[in-house]
Amino acid sequence: xxxxxxxxxxxxxxxxxxxxxxxxxxxxxxxxxxxxxxxxxxxxxxxxxxxxxxxxxxxxxxxxxxxxxxxxxxxxxxxxxxxxxxxxxxxxxxxxxxxxxxxxxxxxxxxxxxxxxxxxxxxxxxxxxxxxxxxxxxxxxxxxxxxxxxxxxxxxxxxxxxxxxxxxxxxxxxxxxxxxxxxxxxxxxxxxxxxxxxxxxxxxxxxxxxxxxxxxxxxxxxxxxxxxxxxxxxxxxxxxxxxxxxxxxxxxxxxxxxxxxxxxxxxxxxxxxxxxxxxxxxxxxxxxxxxxxxxxxxxxxxxxxxxxxxxxxxxxxxxxxxxxxxxxxxxxxxxxxxxxxxxxxxxxxxxxxxxxxxxxxxxxxxxxxxxxxxxxxxxxxxxxxxxxxxxxxxxxxxxxxxxxxxxxxxxxxxxxxxxxxxxxxxxxxxxxxxxxxxxxxxxxxxxxxxxxxxxxxxxxxxxxxxxxxxxxxxxxxxxxxxxxxxxxxxxxxxxxxxxxxxxxxxxxxxxxxxxxxxxxxxxxxxxxxxxxxxxxxxxxxxxxxxxxxxxxxxxxxxxxxxxxxxxxxxxxxxxxxxxxxxxxxxxxxxxxxxxxxxxxxxxxxxxxxxxxxxxxxxxxxxx
Length: 623
Ligand code: ADP
Ligand code: MG
What we know:
Blueprint: E1 3-6, H1 9-21, H2 28-49, E2 61-66, E3 71-76, H3 83-92, H4 98-105, H5 112-118, E4 130-138, E5 147-151, E6 156-161, E7 168-175, H6 185-196, E8 203-207, E9 233-234, H7 251-262, E10 270-276, E11 282-288, E12 301-306, E13 309-313, E14 327-331, H8 341-346, H9 348-371, H10 373-393, H11 395-401, E15 407-408, E16 414-415, H12 417-424, E17 432-436, H13 443-451, E18 456-458, H14 462-474, E19 481-484, E20 493-494, H15 500-514, E21 520-526, E22 533-537, H16 539-550, E23 561-566, H17 570-577, H18 582-597, H19 604-619
Helix pairs in contact: 2-6, 9-10, 9-11, 10-11, 10-14, 15-18, 18-19
The chain binds adenosine-5'-diphosphate and magnesium ion.
Magnesium ion binds next to α2.
């Protein structure tokens, strides 16, 4: 006569709730059941090590598919349970946190996977997918009797003797019709690889569905493999690379691990092996991937493990957001991962750990810079958006890496800010870094600076606009500013006397010729006498416009433009006294257009007009 029992009063309230919540995350039952098997093996190993038990077998976990029976079986040769233990561990202890569970987490649908583990409900996740669950178990203890536990709803159970003859536990799930997909080898393997890929005991998967003996039809070849049962296949690596000592791992192993785990066939740039026992027990490997372009940069993935059991990807409470551009695996055995996200957000331990990871990443960058600068410069183009983003997001990170920040010049050099300043900025003057956002379009302006031996740095990615504002603000004490090559003329002109009357005259002329009544005209002595003029655009004004565009709001502000004329140029001299008429007007318009073209292409209509006028002016030569 089987013994009947009720799991607990509370279970009745809980089961429907769990079922509903878990609907979206059903595959975690695989993680829970396999990790219970691994736990049982670990406990057995411990008993053996202290001489409490003996073992002669290879420890293993098997996951078996039987499509004929519609069952999925999880089998281990761990320590097993006695009938009393089954009653105690499976039926009662499980729900000790039940009251809490219901009251606290009613609304946290997203966290179902975590909640289940936290409240010791791991085993019960089986009922998400099964209409019946059977446990067959034989304890390691002397003279133990094998026990069977059967339950159809997770609320009521029956117990009877089992015929299991060897030590360990077998858990058989009779799957719901709508969950039969877990009997597909590819589906099951996918889930196993995701959650159990690094569990510490060998986990095998095998299809044990009895093969129908098909008699080959007349004249048909007998198919070779048809009735051979598939061999068990191991799905996990029991000693993941992150647990090894960094000094014992070769570069090839790091790369192979990267390819395998992240399915990225590019080489990683470099990596950081985290290996801490104090103040946190934390191990892991973070890779800097080669970024294909800025817009796909967010494709990093950081896998979080808890004692080799996969928990989730990209838990932003543990891993600082900007590190999400990296790829890696982090194993935190002590982390209270099985609790809700709101808990993680407010947990001091989690915060300290995130800070620790950030610090390690920063330190690694600095050591690359200090010890392998040439390599580091090669990586810079790939890693700089990430580093800059990190600086903006986390000032502590900035403080650590600031001396390893590089600026690439148009000449192809990579300079630190200090190196740039030493080479280009005069002492006693507020330091200005000249930059280009588009080397091709701004080639003419760049040329004017390089002709004066002024280095121009390339800042042409999306993050740069924010980054330079960040630097100017953070380094405000040193009065550092960044100016685009078309933002100012100071370093291209000499501070000498020019006549205000002449300036006024020319301003009137140019406003008339260009039709731009707001055009401001300056008269300056250029250091080089080749150029007639240039147009500068106020840096702050331009940034503001760009920023608002980035936020999706085009304010359509007019650019604050200044036409700077070269007082040393014969054309400018001529214009001061040129006779009124079409020629003077055409020359003025031509000068403005040329200056404009040095910084950006003309719009179509203006281009047509420019070409027409150029032809006309050329004809003057032969008249
Ligand atoms: P947890 O693993 O957090 O303790 P579970 O609900 O997953 O909670 O499991 C409840 C208990 O049932 C375990 O603590 C263990 O004592 C027992 N148990 C579950 N699966 C096995 C197994 N395969 N072998 C031995 N004991 C098991
Ligand atoms: Mg468990």
